[in-house]
Design a protein that fits this description.
Elements: E1 15-21, H1 24-36, E2 42-55, E3 58-71, H2 74-84, E4 93-96, H3 102-127
Antiparallel strand pairs: 1-3, 1-4, 2-3
Length: 128
C-alpha cells in the first residue's frame, strides 16, 4: 500500500473539537446530531476517561467519555455542541490540524457536502 504524505490544506482546514460527556448515551446523542447536521464528518467517543478538576471551590473527580469531532466548521460545531450538552459549563476546544492525509480531508469535505445536501432536501420536503 502506497503511503500518501500528509499535507496542509489552507483552502479547507480541518479542526478537531474536543469535549467530555458524563455518559455514552449523551455522547452518542451529541455525536449523531453533529454528524447528521453536517457539522462534523466524524465524532469518536473514547471511554475510560477520569477528569480531575475544580468546580465551585471543590476538587472533583468524574468518570467521563471524550468526544473528538472532525469538522470544517469549528465555530458552528462548538455552538451546537454547547446547545446540546448536559453540562452547565461544557468543555469545547477546537484545534486546527496542522497536516491531514489528502484522502481523509477529501472524505471529510465530501461528508460535509453530503450532509448539507441531505439537510437541504429535507427542508425542501417540509416546505412542499
Amino acid at each position: 500500500m502506497e503511503m500518501t504524505a500528509p499535507v496542509a490544506a489552507p483552502e479547507a482546514a480541518l479542526y478537531l473539537v474536543f469535549s467530555t460527556v458524563p455518559a455514552r448515551e449523551e455522547g452518542e446523542r451529541i455525536a449523531e446530531a453533529l454528524v447528521s447536521e453536517g457539522l462534523a464528518a466524524c465524532v469518536q467517543l473514547l471511554p475510560g476517561l477520569l477528569s480531575v478538576y475544580r468546580w465551585q471551590g471543590a476538587l472533583e473527580r468524574s468518570a467521563e467519555l471524550l468526544l473528538v469531532a472532525k469538522t470544517l466548521r469549528p465555530a458552528d460545531c462548538l455552538a451546537r455542541l454547547a446547545a446540546l450538552h448536559p453540562y452547565q459549563v461544557p468543555e469545547g476546544i477546537a484545534v486546527a490540524a496542522s497536516a491531514v492525509l489528502p484522502d481523509y480531508l477529501r472524505w471529510a469535505l465530501d461528508s460535509a457536502k453530503e450532509a448539507q445536501d441531505s439537510a437541504t432536501r429535507t427542508q425542501r420536503g417540509k416546505s412542499d
